[in-house]
Amino acid sequence: EAVSPASVPEAAPDDGAGLEAARKEYAELRAQGLSLDLTRGKPSPEQLDLSNDLHSLPAAGDLRAADGTDTRNYGGLLGLAELREIFAPLLQVPANRLLALGNASLTLMHDAVVQALLSAPPGGGRRWADEERVRFVCPSPGYDRHFGICERYGIEMISVPLTGQGPDMDAVEELVASDPTVKGMWCVPKYANPTGEVYSDETVRRLAAMPTAAPDFRLFWDNAYAVHHLTGEPAELLPVLDACEEAGNPDRALVFGSTSKITAAGSGVAFVGASAANVAWLKERLLKQTIGPDKVNQLRHVRFFGGTDGVLAHMERHRAVLAPRFAAVQEVLEEELGGLGIAEWTRPAGGYFVSLSVPDGCASEVVRLAKEAGIALTPAGAAFPYGKDPRDREIRLAPSYPSVDEVREAMRAVAVCVRLAAAEQRAA
Ligand code: PLP
């Protein structure tokens, strides 16, 4: 179960001996000359190998889709119907409103934001670029690249805390109800980056139903980890488009996803799903942007998976590779930091990250100490709007890429850095 980083309890005052011991441990760590990287949530080579057969598909004589479409030629603006059928149940969007497009969902999110800036979305009177201010609600810590899109286009970000069940809904409802400049909200509803939490049914219902001052308010529903389970009991997420429709706000959500962490990161297929009105709006842009997506790659994915069950079976193979790495994080952190009162961390049931909370004001120091000892961690604050963690306490750990042994080694090293940073702070 994913737990939200609760406040880290006050540690006992230091008598000096703790600091000396922590300094000695750290000096020994540095002497080891480690070189480990826990920065980005990339699939490991072992995971990428799971999809090796993909790359020799489709066979030379097998380039036609079921409806006779020659995938090598122009056309099929909204993507191959067969692939959309396969992913529709996984992304909880009806196939006729789920578009299979390019190679990266981040591009689709970026383009949807830019399109809203330049071309009024359904329900909105005018382009967002014509508003004096545009603001987005940003549950934090969150995905740095979402926040990067806002920063690039001058969209102001308003942080709201996460609760372990999704964003603090009282805070979100208050913000969107009173302020028409709040046009959007970033949501990673399942196995969130980086806290691992899954939005509860109540959270999804409240997001779908809440009154918004902006008539064209949008949830950017980035379901990047829809099928990326780490346990045998996949979490269930309420389908947001259905919830929005039931609440009388059918156009509220744009759903995104991709196969980046299913097949090949950067060479997969990305999806966007929405209401009929939103799909028509997206289509207006697509018609000018392209004559059609890479259907050969889409057919390759159809042949590789065979069907929705094929995707789920494939994700079980990913789980077999990933789960031991995540278990190693939990084991070592528990051994090294459990019960010390200086750290807490999430226990995600899916996704790619663990979020480690250290005493307020210590995260940057932990990351600095780790760097000097050869362990690259995501910069402190990166998971917050404008790169600033107001309490300087969250550290995102990405254990997918290194081997299990490297993960253990890295976690032991991180623990040494946390103990030193906490001891230094207590002694100060
Ligand atoms: N969304 C989230 C929440 C992610 O964590 C990531 C990658 O780490 C992405 C999107 C990137 O997806 P894509 O490769 O489809 O652009």
Write the layout of secondary structure elements.
Blueprint: H1 17-31, E1 36-38, H2 45-49, H3 81-91, E2 98-100, H4 105-118, E3 135-140, H5 144-152, E4 156-161, H6 169-178, E5 182-187, H7 201-209, E6 218-222, H8 240-246, E7 253-258, E8 270-273, H9 276-289, H10 295-305, H11 308-337, E9 344-345, E10 354-357, H12 363-372, E11 375-377, E12 394-397, H13 404-427
Parallel strand pairs: 1-11, 3-4, 3-5, 5-6, 6-7
Antiparallel strand pairs: 2-8, 7-8, 9-10, 10-12
The structure holds pyridoxal-5'-phosphate (PLP).
Pyridoxal-5'-phosphate (PLP) is lined by residues 41, 104-106, 143, 188, 193, 222, 224, 258, 260, 265, 270.
What does this structure look like?
With 428 residues, the protein is of the alpha/beta class. It has 2 domains: 17-47 and 312-427, Alpha-Beta Complex (Aspartate Aminotransferase, domain 1), CATH 3.90.1150; 66-306, Aspartate Aminotransferase, domain 2, CATH 3.40.640. The chain is built from 13 helices and 12 strands. The protein has helices at residues 17-31, 45-49, 81-91, 105-118, 144-152, 169-178, 201-209, 240-246, 276-289, 295-305, 308-337, 363-372, 404-427; strands at residues 36-38, 98-100, 135-140, 156-161, 182-187, 218-222, 253-258, 270-273, 344-345, 354-357, 375-377, 394-397. Residues 1-6 have low confidence and may be disordered. The structure holds pyridoxal-5'-phosphate. Pyridoxal-5'-phosphate binds next to helix 4.
